[in-house]
Amino acid sequence: MKKIIVTSTLLAMLGAAAPAAFAQAEHGVHHGSASAPAEAEAKLAEGTVKKIDKSAGKLTIVHGPLETLGMPAMTMVFRAADAAMLDQVKVGDKIRFAAESVGGALTVTALEAAP
């Protein structure tokens, strides 16, 4: 019986805190943030496409440091999150991209031509 009371009390406390946390999270959504686009852009790494393997859905990229993954500059093979990305580039293109570990595989999740 004590466990039920403790659990009920804990749930009541969490339930009371949830609206405040939700309101705080929503605050940024409603009002936006001038730094949000800058933060997203800062996460893009620069690189050059060295190889495209459409059958495997992979790109080989010579890239600068990948801050989001804590990796130094090097040449790496990445999966493309979307096969359409492989049609957007050709070997030798300078790109800006975001990479994440998706299911244990390094994956390009965003890709654009470098200015």
From TrEMBL:
InterPro entries: CusF_Ec, CusF_sf. Gene3D superfamilies: Copper binding periplasmic protein CusF. The keyword Ribonucleoprotein does not apply. It holds the Pfam family CusF_Ec. The keyword GTP-binding does not apply. Keywords: Signal. This is RND transporter. Residues 1-23 form the signal peptide.
